[in-house]
Write a structure and sequence with these properties.
12% strand, single chain, TIM Barrel, 5-stranded parallel sheet, Rossmann fold, 6-stranded mixed sheet, alpha/beta, globular
């Protein structure tokens, strides 16, 4: 057995578990102590603020060390920046990938990842499930979209590699995802199993380009996608996560990746409603996964452990395969972590934070958002806005429970309204409840406004938002469209003559857009994706 580990310790090293709440739950404590689970994933549910997160990571490491763990815990998080971020309100909000794609600068991608990496490291998070290097060449993609750098494989490769170096130079393990590519799909693998019909040649020309570049840049980890590639696997129902041909054949043998391969969460329906989580845990290890990710439910985490034990006992899962996975995980930990550096001393968590949301990071964030804001159309020259104090601005925005399974779900509309009102007093605000409100009712409310500022969120995938924007465009009133998530919305209402894109609905992104609208700055971003049918 590698490094004198018991079988229980070995199984624990290949599992990544999550838990609810801002303090260690009894279940996660048991998994750390009794089952030697060696890796943790955190979500927004675990984070209240920076000091609490630092206490939490130190406490988790302390529990593991007291339980006899030979190596510190990998503590990971999805801090992609932009729309997918998990840190609390006092961490710096940095632009996400598509906003960086609109800037197009490797230097900026590196700086953002390095700065965010220093904040994560200071808070005890040593693994970031980023960057996303999917090539988003499908406007109907419901789950990647603005999480991608764009649709050009070469640009995604350039910026993704720069981000890898930024994260890892800051001491945080980077993780390319989602191998071998989740960009050209119209199905969310959280909800079902997407399938890509392409042959290997197409993958080599598009999807694999950023992964090759990231491997060359020294990325330490790659996450698999729950997507079917039947041209490679010859099985429509087999996700890449469970495919030896994709993980061992394509990623290890063809691309030469020697680092750690982690599964996307097995609780996603592409797995949980397919082979199931327990069976999926075994098949993932057989396929070449080194870290099995089960993010949420304790019962499912135990089921995964029991299934792996049973497969080892029957010989279905060879011990050598488990040992190879453990060795890769341990080598990664030895490279990045030690008990001296992870900090399991609870009193040390009172030391003031040096990196989190410091002045330099705030300035970098503001600069990047200013560079990313993109004025796609200004045919009526409504921007910069020239408006008299007595004239009315009507702000229209959509209200919906959630936009994707992974994104930050809060549209920062209050920040937007506050920013507009700081510049113009006569403002009315009109929420539009998607799937319940009537378009005509809202048109009546904004009638007589001198400017309509219409916020859209993935309107190209939402018939009601599309109907509203088409009606506003035909109303004769001046309308500024502001796409605050994916920039594809204009495809659905090509007659709109003024269109601005921020790529995300975070407060600093919206602030940067308002500055452009009122002529305080010029939009400098360039669309990193094409809008089919839009000249």
């Amino acid at each position: 057995m590698p490094l004198n580990m018991t079988l229980e310790e070995q199984i624990g090293q290949v599992l990544v578990a999550g838990f609810p709440g801002p303090t260690p739950s009894p279940e996660i404590i048991e998994l750390l102590q009794r089952h030697h689970v060696g890796n943790i994933i955190l979500f927004s549910r675990n984070v209240q603020n920076a000091q609490q997160l630092r206490r939490l990571t130190r406490e988790l490491q302390h529990i593991a060390r007291e339980a006899g763990h030979r190596h510190p815990l990998l503590i990971g998080i999805d801090q992609e920046n932009g729309s997918v971020r998990r840190l609390g309100p006092d961490a710096t909000i940095f632009p996400g990938n598509m906003a960086l794609g609109a800037i197009g600068s490797e230097q900026m991608a590196y700086k953002i990842a390095s700065a965010a990496g220093h904040e994560l490291s200071e808070l005890g998070v040593n693994l970031n499930f980023a960057p996303v290097v999917d090539v988003n060449n499908n406007p109907a993609n419901p789950v990647i979209g603005n999480r991608a750098f764009g649709e050009d494989p070469q640009q995604v490769a350039r910026l993704g590699s720069a981000a890898v170096k930024g994260w890892q130079d800051a001491g945080v393990i980077a993780c390319l995802k989602h191998f071998p590519g989740h960009g050209d799909t119209a199905v969310d693998s959280h909800l079902a199993l997407p399938s890509l019909p392409y042959a290997l040649q197409r993958l080599e020309e598009v999807e694999l380009v950023p992964f090759q570049s990231g491997i060359a840049a020294g990325v330490a980890m790659i996450m698999s996608a729950h997507i079917s590639f039947p041209a490679i696997t010859h099985d429509e129902a087999l996700p890449a996560t469970l495919s030896p041909a994709i993980l061992r054949g394509l990623l290890r043998d063809q691309l030469g990746f020697k680092g750690v391969i982690i599964s996307d969460c097995l609780e996603m329906k592409a797995i949980s409603e397919g082979v199931g989580i327990a069976r999926g845990s075994v098949l993932a290890l057989l396929a070449g996964i080194d870290l099995v990710l089960i993010s949420h439910l304790y019962e499912r985490q135990l089921a995964g452990i029991d299934a792996i034990k049973a497969a080892l006992a029957t010989g279905e899962l060879p011990h050598e395969l488990l040992q190879q996975a453990v060795e890769r995980v341990v080598q990664l930990k030895q490279r990045y972590l030690s008990w001296e550096t992870v900090g399991d001393d609870q009193t040390a968590s009172q030391v003031p934070l040096q990196w989190v949301s410091n002045v330099a990071h705030q300035q970098l964030s503001e600069q990047a958002y200013a560079l990313s804001t993109t004025l796609v159309r200004n045919q009526q020259e409504l921007i910069p806005l020239h408006i008299q104090p007595t004239q009315r601005i009507a702000i229209v925005y959509p209200v919906k429970e959630a936009w994707t399974e992974v994104a930050d779900r809060t549209l920062a509309i209050d920040d937007l309204v506050q920013q507009v009102r700081q510049r113009h007093a006569n403002v009315t605000v009109h929420p539009f409840k998607v799937q319940s409100d009537d378009v005509q009712t809202l048109l009546n409310q904004v009638q007589g406004a001198d400017i309509v500022l219409a916020i859209t969120v993935n309107a190209n995938l939402d018939p009601q938002q599309t109907a509203l924007m088409q009606a506003l465009s035909q109303s004769g009133q001046p309308v500024i469209g502001l796409a605050v998530h994916n920039p594809y919305d204009l495809i659905a209402f090509p007659q709109l003559s003024t269109y601005l894109a921020t790529y995300e609905y975070s407060p600093p992104a919206l602030t940067a857009a308002v500055r452009v609208i009122f002529g305080e700055s010029e939009a400098q971003g360039h669309l990193p994706v094409s809008l089919p049918g839009i000249s």
